[in-house]
């Protein structure tokens, strides 16, 4: 089941909240900053404890799991979407970011997960294209009984996601 919500993802009542992070997993602006502020310093400490190679804790398209600090969720799944105009196949990497996050949710037996619009902020992904990839990937994931929420921050994004979901169903 996919549910579309206009609002702040830090308020989501789900097992896992997905963070649109950067490869360092050390925080940033946008939704990443909001999640770290709401979760508190325990989240940053959990990220710092993850293995890193040359400062990279999570390559683009992959995902990593941590506890969620002060958030009501049990886990934060940190994933890294592509910077739209800096990679050859941004659509493949965006789909992979969603797939990697869903795999971690399944492995950890989550019943519910909340996604933001990965790469749709400073990473510059066109929102209609991103909505199609996000929703199509989730619809094809076939994880039984996983309740998937999308938190769209801006009303216009909610409209785009709703329109895209209707066209895919
Ligand atoms: N709840 C839900 N969505 C939000 C929230 C929120 N509280 N705040 C912003 N958004 P962005 P990216 C939306 O830039 O493009 C960070 O600095 C926002 O309107 O957060 O993947 C990281 O550290 C947009 O639609 O993520 C990386 O360096 C969407 O979240 C970089 O930004 C994603 O925007 C990642 O860039």
TrEMBL record:
InterPro entries per record: Macro_dom (IPR002589), Macro_dom-like (IPR043472)
Organism superkingdom: Bacteria
SMART domains: A1pp
Pfam families membership: Macro
Domain Macro intervals: 1-169
Protein name, as recorded: O-acetyl-ADP-ribose deacetylase
Native source organism of the sequence: Vibrio eleionomae
Organism lineage: Bacteria, Pseudomonadati, Pseudomonadota, Gammaproteobacteria, Vibrionales
């Amino acid at each position: 089941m996919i549910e579309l919500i206009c609002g702040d993802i830090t308020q989501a009542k789900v097992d896992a909240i997905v963070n649109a992070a950067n490869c360092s997993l050390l925080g940033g602006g946008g939704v990443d900053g909001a999640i770290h502020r709401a979760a508190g310093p325990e989240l940053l400490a959990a990220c710092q404890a993850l293995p890193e190679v040359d400062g990279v804790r999570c390559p683009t398209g992959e995902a990593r799991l941590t506890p969620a600090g002060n958030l009501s969720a049990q886990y934060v799944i940190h994933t890294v979407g592509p910077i739209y105009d800096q990679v050859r196949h941004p659509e493949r990497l965006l789909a992979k970011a969603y797939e990697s996050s869903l795999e971690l949710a399944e492995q950890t037996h989550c019943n519910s997960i909340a996604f933001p619009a990965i790469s749709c902020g400073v990473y510059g992904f066109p929102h209609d294209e991103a909505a199609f990839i996000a929703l199509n990937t989730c619809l094809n994931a076939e994880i039984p009984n996983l309740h998937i929420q999308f938190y769209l921050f801006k009303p216009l994004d909610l409209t785009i996601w709703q329109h895209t979901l209707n066209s895919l169903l």
